[in-house]
Amino acid sequence: MTTTFEEKLKLNGTLIVITNNSCNLSCSNCLLLPHFEKQEEYSWNSISDRMEAWARSLDVDDIAIAGGEMFMHPNLDVWFSNLRRLWPNARIEVPTNGTLLSKRLELSRLICSDKNAILRVSCLYDNPDKYKEIESQIHEVLDIWKDNLEIVSDNEGINYYVNNNLVLRYHNITHFANPYYQNITGKNVNFHMNGDQEESFKKCIWHADYILQHGLLNHCPATVNYASSNSVLRFSPEVVESFKKYTPCDPLKGAEYIKWYINEYKQNSIEVCKHCAYDKRVTDKLFNLKVVQLPSTKL
Q1: Which of 26, 136, 180, 199 is deepest in the core (most CB within 10 A)?
Q2: Which residues pair with 191 in a beta bridge?
Q3: Residue 299 located in a structural domain
Q4: Is the pTM of this model over 0.85?
């Protein structure tokens, strides 16, 4: 079995690396199942062999660390530093709700001091006071660079540049991804159901992204969430049967398997797509609610 590539595969999309599913908020329309009771932070050491294998196999331009709320992970610095080591030229984005920036000041500054990383902060409260509170934490993080800091506002937020490098973006609008499920009642995850599999895949807002959880590459958020939540949440028998037919990509299976998964399997629909039924509804990767009017106060 060939385990390495003569030339790395180029990913034409973002590599989303999930570090945890814990969060200090409970947004009702969260993509990653808001009533998820099994909250945990994942260990880098437990998947380091797989991550090393991915780095030998994939040429990646864009990485997004995802959760949960990533700043709740006590070892997020380990994840960030190792991702930078494995993909030294990739742009790394770390989204956060901003509520823990001051508590994790050293971590916040580690990310902002990287030459090719950005903290993307979204205020998830429809409350101007909360917006200002998070903005104050941002100013505390960036205070050590105040002599080299430029603040530029646009229609969707504030961009903070240090020595001409964009290090942090603060949205003055709330950002949510359009969930793949319809709703959650109690512990039951309800899908839209009965969509056209191929058309749903084409309209899916996630089909161009690559999602890594536990070192395994997944087709979409739905397949990621099911694997982690089926012990605490309930799905209809028809949905369960579709998920059982799906297998994520393990890089330890070798180069030919990875190549097949990325070039063929990942580019096509799976049975789960018909349950998400994106073809039957309006899809918008972000829907926005204005929180405050700009311009913002300066440092």
Answers
A1: 180
A2: none
A3: no
A4: yes
